[in-house]
Write a structure and sequence with these properties.
Oligomer: single chain
Number of helices: 16
Strand content: 15-25%
CATH class of the largest domain: Alpha Beta
Bound molecules: pyridoxal-5'-phosphate
CATH superfamily of the largest domain: Type I PLP-dependent aspartate aminotransferase-like (Major domain)
Structural class: alpha/beta
Distance between the termini: 49 Å
Length: about 425
């Protein structure tokens, strides 16, 4: 086995390594990892550092953290929070309980999501990058896909639109300019006898804004060019009217494109992430015209991109909450919709700590520049490292020399724990 910590040949398991590893027995890690820690400490010339090395390995394990950053969809913290556990039972993942015959895993959550956004059908894959790739492979392999030069974006983590299009086997036909593209640019590319246009692609500029002398066609203007219009909306807002929120859409949603309205405007397919504004698990959803969704499902790549039952079960839970218009049951929306007064109502638990007004953000590469008025508590000085090293790590921000925990992204059940931790790092003087 390759060491997790240092490159030492595995046969280097001297008696001293074994002895040191045995001295770490109180640390809750399997024996081979304690050996790694011991070996790393010896390699560093500091055997006494073995417990620290073991703790470093422990801290790399996936574990719950408390998000005090105010970034609702924090990419480093797994984007949307979602409570989901699975029992050890089998599930009817691919069994039709009515007929007893082989069933279809895409008949559950994907169909519910299609219902929730007014699409004829939907198929779910591992993330939105995979969704875009599958759509292009299924509809435009060896043919042309037309896209605006203003939308050949990089979403993050190396997801570059031109690359994804190339992997799919579609040929990219760029039209317009960085700041201005018109319907006529698309129409000319479609009409060009030198092109074989299979799809027109619209990509939402999720994580940046082009301001000033700009122009881009609306979805409706690209819907009747002939080839199907595929709109990568990214964020996963299902319906711009937010019927799952008592107060309707929050003002900060602004002009974020929504699946239902993009389909109503004439897009043949939309693609979006499961773990952004949808508030679900990591997934990519392709929704829209039944024949095109079917082509995606039948494509040979679909098998390699399909999600497992854990993801489908969590998505089903979210989809049912949307269909029941129950935003309280979707953690992301419950936190996003809290008013500053509701947040202030929790300050009693933070007695003795300084209240601050904060600016929370949607995050996750959505809604750039959007701030959501929020409430936090502050402690003078930078205590972020100590807060991160707690048994349940608290991730905080430092602003103007003070450590700030934004209450919007903290689960109310964690308030007492966070308050105690802040009092502890603050000490008697704050
Ligand atoms: C976020 C985003 C993606 C990538 O989504 P993942 O689910 O992270 O793969 C693709 N397109 C757009 C427009 C996005 O906003």
């Amino acid at each position: 086995m390759r060491s997790l910590v240092v490159d030492v040949p595995p046969q280097d398991r001297t008696p001293s390594v074994d002895r040191l590893a045995r001295s770490l027995a109180g640390i809750d890690l399997p024996q081979p990892l304690l050996v790694d820690a011991a070996r790393a400490a010896i390699a560093a010339g500091d055997p006494d550092s073995a417990p620290d090395q073991a703790q470093r390995i422990r801290r790399r394990l996936l574990a719950p953290v408390i998000n005090g950053t105010g970034v609702l969809l924090h990419t480093n913290l797994g984007r949307a929070p979602l409570a989901w556990t699975q029992s050890a039972h089998y599930s009817n993942l691919e069994l039709d309980l009515t007929t007893g015959e082989r069933g279809d895993r895409q008949a559950g959550a994907p169909a519910l999501l299609a219902r929730a956004c007014g699409a004829e059908a939907a198929v779910v894959v591992n993330n939105c990058a995979a969704a875009v790739m599958l759509v292009l492979a299924a509809l435009a392999e060896g043919r042309d896909a037309v896209v605006s030069r203003g939308e050949l974006v990089e979403i993050g983590g190396g997801f570059r639109m031109p690359d994804v299009m190339a992997w799919s086997g579609a040929r990219l036909v760029e039209v317009g300019t960085t700041n201005r593209t018109r319907r006529t640019d698309f129409a000319a590319a479609v009409a060009d006898p030198g092109n074989d246009v299979a799809v027109v692609v619209q990509v939402h500029q999720s994580n940046f804004r082009v301001v000033g002398y700009t122009e881009a066609p609306r979805t409706a203007e690209l819907a009747d060019l002939g080839p199907p219009l595929v709109a990568d909306i990214g964020s996963g807002l299902l319906d711009s009217r937010c019927p799952w929120l008592d107060g309707g859409p929050p003002p900060w949603l602004d002009r974020e494109p929504a699946a239902r309205q993009t389909l109503e405007a004439g897009a043949a397919l939309v693609t979006f992430s499961g773990d952004k504004l949808l508030g679900g698990p990591q997934a990519g959803i392709i929704a829209g015209r039944a024949d095109l969704v079917e082509a995606c499902r039948r494509h040979r790549l679909a098998r390699a991109l399909r999600p497992g039952s854990l993801v489908l079960a969590a998505l089903q839970h979210i989809a049912l909450a949307y269909l029941g218009a129950d935003g309280e049951d979707i953690d992301f929306w419950r936190m996003a919709a809290l008013t500053p007064d509701q947040l202030r109502g929790r300050l009693g638990l933070y007695d003795g700590l300084r209240e601050v007004t904060t600016a929370a953000t949607p995050g996750g590469g959505t809604l750039p520049g959007v701030e959501i008025e929020s409430v936090g508590v502050a402690v003078t000085g930078d205590h972020t490292s100590r807060l991160r090293s707690l048994p349940r790590p608290i991730i905080a921000r430092v602003i103007d020399g003070a450590t700030i925990v934004d209450l919007r992204t903290v689960h109310p059940d964690d308030d007492a724990e966070v308050a105690a931790a802040l009092h502890q790092v603050a000490g008697p003087v704050r």
